[in-house]
Amino acid sequence: MFQENLRFLRFESKKLAGYPLTESASRILPVLLPPDFSAAKKYPTVWMLDGYLGTGRSLMSESGFLGEPLGSQLLRLMREDILPASIFVFPDPTTRFGGSQFIDSTVCGPFMQHITDELVPFIDGQFPTIAGKDGRVICGHSSGGYGALMISMLRPEIFGYCIASAADSAFELSMAAAFPTAAVRLNKYGGEEGFLKYFFSQPKPEKCSKDDFLTLMTIAMATCYSPDPARSGVWCQLPFDPHSCALREDIWANWLKHDPCQMAPQYAEALKKLRWLHLDCGSEDEFSAQYGHRRFAKILNDRRVEHHITEFAGGHSGTGFRWQFRFAELAPFLRSYSSR
């Protein structure tokens, strides 16, 4: 079991305090220490970003290869020397509507700053880390993969390695596909406020239908990409008209500004500063992440940004077994620096 190597730290965030959708600025931060941990050594840190509705703790406990929880899998990889001994950190990105996308929002709070400016120095102060970008890895799946790319592009001085799995990208495919479904549910309940009232009145909202999930996710994405602090209760503007499902072009343009495929040309030089960039996705991803990854990789190729892209037979979920392959690819690069 991995629990004996696990530490749960409580962090009181100053940056997240006072935002309407951040229900608590107090966050539980799981930290997984390597086997045979010693305070006399210095270790790389691997920051694991969870997907939408994830808490950090949920990612760590997620079953992967043959039902092996991720925490156990990570310890095994280090014991087998597939991955050098490292400290793993699992931030909590949750908001009232489910997730922050790890970016700064006027209603969710500055979650990117929370990680880069609060949590990174906090962990470096609590544990014997290699305190510098070449000793730090950022990685994640789905919204977590998106967050890893965003932080790598916008804050290239923090992390030296990035692994993005099924990252949200090509928004006209990955995001807009949910708009018709969301429009049906919003019309049924009289708009965003009515839907949210219905959703959170359920005895177990976490057991919601797929259509309810997609609708809540769409609203949550809007709180990240088109937040509206003046719209109390909903806290965002949707990028489409629920009646006609026609795009609201000005709001949709704000979403596209956060699309990695749209951002990549501008931030190619930042990505060149990474020692290792890995993109990983299933070829049958239900949210079309494979197409976003392919487009993103083409932009990187055109601008001569070194990267590695892999696809596997599978979809968006149940991909925990892939971490072994992702970290095996990373290991030589991380080991070459951490062994100095």
Could you walk me through the main structural features you see in this protein, from its secondary elements to its overall organization?
A hairpin with a 3-residue loop joins strand 5 and strand 6. The protein has 2 domains: about 5-170 and about 260-340, 3-Layer(aba) Sandwich (Rossmann fold), CATH 3.40.50; about 175-255, no CATH class. With about 350 residues, the chain is an alpha/beta fold. It has helices spanning about 55-60, 70-80, 110-125, 145-155, 170-175, 180-190, 190-200, 210-225, 250-255, 260-270, 290-300, 325-340, and strands spanning about 5-10, 25-30, 45-50, 85-90, 105, 110, 135-140, 160-165, 275-280, 310. Helices cover about 40% and strands about 15% of the residues. The strands form 2 sheets. An 8-stranded mixed beta sheet has the order 1-2-4-3-7-8-9-10, sandwiched between helices. A two-stranded antiparallel sheet has the order 5-6. It is globular and about 60 Å long. It contains 12 helices and 10 strands.
